[in-house]
Design brief:
alpha+beta; 5-stranded mixed sheet
């Protein structure tokens, strides 16, 4: 069955790029509602923004959604990954600014709050997007593809010149709460030199060593070091799950990413939905629903962050 959260949740933080204070509230929603954002700081005009792949304004730095009036909300990927990874299908997200709060740079604060509050079943079956044949999107810098699989799976490969990151690969079954066990605490990462360049451009003004893993060559500059030796590739998988959740329904298939980012993953969704014979919408029986991301996720299995 479809689900929603049991009660409203509130998160206070700052926007990664603006550095401005921002409040996010996640509210329960009825079956069939899906995921929508509302800009509560807007008093006139259309303040609603759908969490959908075709509302994405592609950016290399984050995932930004824009409605027909031009109103936007950015950095949605972490909270979207948390909702998907906890098995939440319906929610309304109220935010009083143009960015979702970055919090600690991962999805774990959202995950803990959602699972502490609890997720409740609604009286409507879950639909999923079943991949029937491979589809791919490629650029000179990287590529991503969907492949048929009876379970949701993901594999990812990254290759950075910085020795602190280097070459990393990971593959995993996304079923049955594996997101909360293995991915949700992995933080966004960047080079210290890139931070300086972004700030010169008026970006990453809210970025700190506390909400990102910052590297310089073979050095980890963030206090406490890494949460996982392969935290970088785990975070790329977290981002990818958040981005593919904008498909509007869970994807039953395998996502493969090779040096892929937000724009590549969104372009892959656009290729998928432009290829009608590459997928079908199915109504999940109990067995299929039980293997979707978030099904069976438990609070006591959430990554243990010090």
């Amino acid at each position: 069955m479809q689900t929603t959260i049991t009660k409203p949740l509130t998160f206070d933080g700052i926007g990664l790029h603006s550095g401005a204070p921002v409040r996010l509230r996640i509210l329960p929603a009825v079956a069939g509602h899906g995921i929508w954002f509302e800009r509560t700081d807007i008093e006139i005009g259309d303040a609603l923004i759908a969490a959908r792949w075709d509302w994405v304004d592609q950016s290399p730095l984050c995932t930004k959604l824009v409605n027909e009036s031009g109103l936007s909300v950015s950095t949605v990927e972490h909270v979207m990954a948390a909702l998907t990874g906890c098995g939440v299908h319906n929610a309304k997200l109220e935010v009083d600014g143009p960015e979702i709060p970055i919090l600690d740079g991962s999805a774990v604060p959202f995950v803990r709050a959602i699972l502490t509050a609890g997720v409740v079943a609604l009286n409507k079956p879950v639909q999923a997007i079943k991949i029937l044949k491979p589809v791919r999107f490629e650029t000179e810098n990287g590529w991503a593809q969907f492949e048929p699989s009876d379970i949701p799976e993901m594999s990812f490969h990254i290759d950075f010149s910085d020795a602190a990151i280097g070459v990393q690969s990971k593959a995993m079954n996304l079923s049955n709460g594996s997101f909360v066990r293995e991915l949700c605490d992995s933080r966004t990462f960047c080079r210290n030199s890139d931070v300086e360049k972004m700030r010169d451009q008026g970006l990453a003004l809210g970025g700190t060593l506390e909400n990102a893993v910052v590297v310089e060559g073979d050095q980890i500059l963030s206090p406490g070091g890494l949460r996982h030796t392969d935290e970088a590739v785990r975070h790329k998988m977290l981002d990818a799950l958040g981005d593919i959740s904008l498909a509007g329904a869970p994807i039953l298939g395998r996502y493969v990413g090779h040096r892929a980012g937000h724009a590549i993953t969104n372009s892959l969704l656009r290729v998928l939905f432009a290829t009608p014979d590459a997928y079908e919408i199915i109504t999940c029986d109990s067995g299929t629903a039980a293997c979707l991301p978030g099904a069976g996720a438990r609070l006591d299995e959430v990554c243990n962050v010090a």
